[in-house]
Amino acid sequence: MRLFWISMAILGSGLILLIANHDSGTVLGLESSAFASTLYMGLWAAVLIVGILGSGLRIGEMARTLAFWVFLLLALVAIYQYRYELQDVASRVTAGLIPGTPVSAVGSDGRAQVMVERSASGHFEVVADVNGTGLRMLIDTGASSIVLSDADARSAGFDPEGLQFQTPVATANGTALVARARAAEIQVGSIVRSNLPVYVAQPGRLDQSLLGMSFINTLAGFELRGDRIILRD
């Protein structure tokens, strides 16, 4: 208790000095902000030391306890400093476990970019949000437009019965008729586009939705790196 009151007296004196020298901007040769930070850290150090000494632990147990708390503090600081790198690692692990998961990052130019891994089928498939609904879409640079299958269009809130299938397009299964529509929002990772034109295929004419050039052309560019495609906003 004597150590506690001595510590409180020292900290109280420092607080008085800080208040008294507020206008000058310095206290004992230190900037006021630096002096205040020192007082703050000193307060926590005093509480920790008094707590350990007052616990009745032996010197060895006390040292181990102090080392544990120092290690925990350093670990928390390290996690905070490398939080963005850890988020990137977590995103990459998720992409490996769940194929099609887009990995968002920030490029050296400060722009958003999204990485997509090649799927087991050999194509680049990505889970894109269309009107708030996650749809597995094929990134197809050979397709001029965004084309939704009948099932995906229904999931995204479109009503195919109310659409007019009048536009002919060439597909792997031959020529098919599609209907024009607009998506309120399409999001791929951190890349978001609003009010984009889309086409809806007739039932049974398209097995998988296509993320075509009408979306890719809105980007700053894209790049193929082995088994990865990187979309740049």
UniProtKB/TrEMBL annotation:
Keyword annotations: Membrane, Transmembrane, Transmembrane helix
Alphabetized GO MF terms: aspartic-type endopeptidase activity
Biological-process GO terms, alphabetical: proteolysis
Domain of life where this protein originates: Bacteria
Transmembrane segments: 39-59, 66-84
Protein name: TIGR02281 family clan AA aspartic protease
